Each structure stands twice: as structure tokens, then as C-alpha cells.
Protein: Na(+)/H(+) antiporter NhaA
Organism: Curtobacterium luteum
Amino acid sequence: MSSLLRSPRFSAVALLVAAVLGLAVANSPLGPGLERVLDAHSPWGAIGLDLSVSHWISDGLLAVFFLLIAIELKQELVAGELSNPKTAVIPAIAAVGGVVVPAGVYLAVTTGTQYGHGWPIPTATDIAFALGVLAVFGRGLPSAVRVFLLALAVLDDLIAIVIIAVVFAHDTDFLALAGAVVVLAAFWLLGRRLQRVERGRGLLIAALVVLGVLAWWLVYHSGVHATIAGVALGLLLPRPSGHTVYERVEPFSNGLVLPLFAFASAAVVVPDVGLGELSPTFWAVVLALPVGKVIGITLFGSVATRIFRAPGRTTLSFGSIMTVSVLGGIGFTVSLLMNELAFARNEEILDEGVLAVLVGSGIAMVASAVVVSLRARRYRGRRELSEAESTE
């Protein structure tokens, strides 16, 4: 069961099913009941945690997902594809293109309206979904394609983390933020000590868990989005401990956290309006995700490949970069979060943004399935031809 929950295929299918189910339930007779459940508040307001069920999912559970992203990011930066600047520079530039161009497309479509602050929505790439689609349809593609996609998606998420921390911070409580920094420093020191001791490890682990929860609470009260606490904790964990946490928590994240977030985020009522009455935000996101991402990643990645090409270093072809760029248009999880943060005070536009993310990511999924399948078939054909020639 654990191996199934770790599978990129399972993660992608679970996210898709959860999103479709959330949308279906919200638009069924059960919709009002679901809305009441998601809007219900916890009884913990006395300790400063007066959150609805929906916010517990997006602010609380989703911090677990960002914890894993940070652990993966640290692994890539220290010992993975991003540890060598010469190797990391091309996916880094491609990732910047995959953020700048979609944001530009969004701003171009919404120019002259009051919705320009939603520009971060189409800048994200969903790692789980993109890798899942590649795993399902990409049999036969060279491993360099997956490596490039992973590096690009990780860097893309790093940019998304910065955007969440900077753009969506509100009424910052610097005292709470300072407290979070102190707690995180204590977490880092205990994490380092954990690597050097054999006795009392259980007590140290319990202390780390308590400090992690306290850091999350303080970041939540600071006005910075609480998921940033998960990022900080993941980056501060020593790599061996981070690997252990990743191995143990990934099935929980893939099997519960992400599907639950997808279900809750997609549970919106489809507006009973004509296409012409939809806001510019809807059209901006629908266009920016599948189109802006392809243009940005392909253009910036191809230029970077030409500039930083070096003898003896394998570089992706234009076709392979374009294949990755189509996969990059699957925004989904982080795009849904960006939408929630951008339009939290405008329920109508918030719902349209959710639908736009689902439609835009859906278009990117279908396009990815076609492009990846054709590309993989071409590589398999070449390999079969090469093997046939070698046996003659």
C-alpha cells in the first residue's frame, strides 16, 4: 500500500478524482451541506486558532505538502541536479520564463480591471501532477526529460514560495514573526543534535514535533501564510532526518493531504452565466496556464540551452524542452492556493478562479498526454530501430 501511495501515477489520479468529486458534489443537492461543513469553525478560537475546516486544510494540512517540497528542494540543492550551478542554470532560467510569461499574459488580459493582483495564479507548476502524467504517458523518454522537469518544477515551487511569503503577507505581526524565527532556530539546533546522539532520540523527536507545531502557530499569527512554516522546517531539517521524514510522510501527503485540498478547493458552484459574462480573471488564467507556460519555458529554456551549452554536457533538444513546457502548464495545487490567497475577499471571482485553474490545468493535462505520448513513441521507435540494426 505504501508503494502505491508513493507512485506519481497514483498521486495524479487521486488529485484529479478528488477535484472532479469536489466540483460534482458542490453542484449537486449535497452542495449546501458541503459548504456548511467547509465553513464550520473549530472550537479552538481561545488559543488563536479560529479557523474553518477549509482553512485548516489550506493553512494546516497543506503545510505538510510544503514541508515535503522543502525537503526535496534541499536534497536537489545539496546533492541533486541543482547542486551544480552549471547544470542548474538552464532549468532555473526556464523556470523564470515559466513564471514571468504566464504572469505577463494574465496582466495583459486583465489590464484596466481590478483583478490584476491575481497574476501569481498561473505561475505555479504542480510537481505531483506533472510527474504523474509523465510517468503514465512517457514510457521510453530519456531520463533527462524527467530530471529537467523535476528541477524546473522544484525551482518553480521555490519562486511560488517566495511569492506567497512576500506578496500575500498581510498585516504582518513582527513580534510573532520574530518568535517564529527563535523557535525555528531552536528546531535547527535540536535537529543537528539529533544527528549526533543515540540515547534519548525519542524525546528529541517529540521536542522537534512540538517546536514545529509552535513555529506553524506563530507564522500563522504573523500574517505570513502558514504553509511557509512547513517550508522553513523542511529546509532546516538535516538531510538524513529530512529523508526519513519524507519517506514516512509522503504516503500521508499523497493519499490524504493533496486529495483533500483538491476536493475542498474544487468544491465551488459553477456560475450560471454565459461565457461572455465571465470575468477577465477566468480567461486570463485559462490562457496563461497552458499557453503562457509553454511559451515562457520553451523560449527561456531554449535560449539558456544555446547560451550555456558546453562540450561533454548533455542538453535537451528543443522538442524535449517543449514537452516539459506543456507539462509545466499543469498548475493545479499551488495555483488553487494562489487563487485562494489572491481573491479571498471576493467569493465570486474566487470561484471563477478555481474553475479557471481546473480548466487551464485540464487543457494542459490533455495536451501533455498527447505531446508526451507522441514524443515517447518516437523515442521507442528510434530505440527499436537501433536495436534491430545492432542485431543484423
The two ends are 45 Å apart (CA to CA).
